[in-house]
């Protein structure tokens, strides 16, 4: 009787430890493809801390999957702090969003829902733990090709539309990249870049900016820079 009672206590203690242990998802055995379900409790059925562990330099495909049962109206936009990444909105009709990137920075980074949803406070404790490889080198990123076309080459001060196309070296669109626009201008006798706007590429890798020239010069040079996050080079 005592032996059975002791076994019962041990099982109960193990159950308590399991219930309060942080939830981890290790991607090292999944070739970098990670699926995190967002359900009525939080991340993969837990409302507490949830951690994904990967190795520095690993190429990651992180998918957030809408998996609600009772909360059919929930919508989520996931962001990963430190990597400046944002996923497309997921809801009952668009249930998955995936971003591919290289985990090139070691440390612990928070991912969370950026919308004021019903589960908002339960979706603020996701963590990406990137284990350091101690090599000290940065991972290579895929180069990008940036092309800009104005709607008009000649204008008398009327607005023009700057169409920007950003692709990788294989011709695939680079989405959700921040694009900065500058004109070459002179300030107090010093020539430099003056920012005229910021845009973000869409799913087709295209960004648009309406620009009205204001400088009293015959010719303006417009400079464009992109901040392509994750697997792509800037």
Provide a brief overview of the structure.
8% of the residues lie in helices and 42% in strands. By secondary structure, it is mainly beta.
What report would you give on this structure?
This protein has 234 residues and is mostly beta strands. The chain has one helix spanning 2-20; strands at residues 23-26, 33-38, 50-55, 59-66, 78-80, 85-86, 96-102, 107-113, 126-131, 144-150, 160-168, 178-187, 190-200, 206-211, 222-227.
Write the layout of secondary structure elements.
Blueprint: H1 2-20, E1 23-26, E2 33-38, E3 50-55, E4 59-66, E5 78-80, E6 85-86, E7 96-102, E8 107-113, E9 126-131, E10 144-150, E11 160-168, E12 178-187, E13 190-200, E14 206-211, E15 222-227
Parallel strand pairs: 1-3, 2-4, 3-9
Antiparallel strand pairs: 4-7, 5-6, 5-8, 8-9, 10-11, 11-14, 12-13, 12-15
- Using only C-alpha atoms, the radius of gyration works out to 24 Å
N-to-C SSE series? HEEEEEEEEEEEEEEE
| First and last CA, distance | 69 Å
Number of strands: 15
The order of strands across the largest sheet is 1-3-9-8-5-6
> Low-confidence parts, pLDDT < 50 over ≥5 residues?
5-22
Structural class: mainly beta
Mean pLDDT: 81
What distinguishing features does this structure have?
about 230 residues; mainly beta; 3-stranded mixed beta sheet
């Amino acid at each position: 009787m005592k032996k059975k009672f002791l076994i019962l206590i041990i099982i109960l203690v193990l159950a308590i430890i399991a219930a309060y242990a942080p939830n981890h998802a290790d991607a090292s055995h999944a070739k970098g493809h990670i699926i995190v379900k967002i359900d009525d409790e939080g991340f993969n059925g837990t409302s507490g801390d949830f951690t994904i562990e990967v190795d520095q330099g690993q190429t990651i495909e992180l998918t957030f999957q809408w998996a609600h049962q009772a909360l059919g109206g929930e919508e989520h936009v996931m962001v990963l702090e430190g990597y400046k990444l944002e996923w497309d909105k997921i809801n009952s009709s668009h249930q998955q969003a995936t971003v591919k990137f290289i985990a090139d920075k070691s440390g612990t980074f928070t991912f969370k829902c950026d919308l004021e949803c019903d589960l908002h406070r339960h979706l603020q404790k996701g963590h990406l733990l990137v284990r350091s490889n101690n090599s000290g080198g940065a991972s290579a990123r895929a180069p990008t090709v940036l092309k800009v076309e104005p709607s008009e080459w000649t204008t008398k001060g009327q607005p023009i539309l700057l169409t920007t196309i950003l692709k990788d070296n294989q011709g695939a669109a680079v989405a959700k990249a921040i694009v900065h626009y500058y004109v070459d201008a002179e300030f107090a006798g010093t020539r430099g870049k003056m920012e005229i706007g910021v845009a973000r590429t869409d799913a087709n890798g295209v960004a648009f900016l309406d620009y009205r020239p204001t400088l009293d010069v015959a010719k303006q040079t417009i400079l464009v820079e992109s901040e392509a996050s994750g697997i792509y080079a800037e």
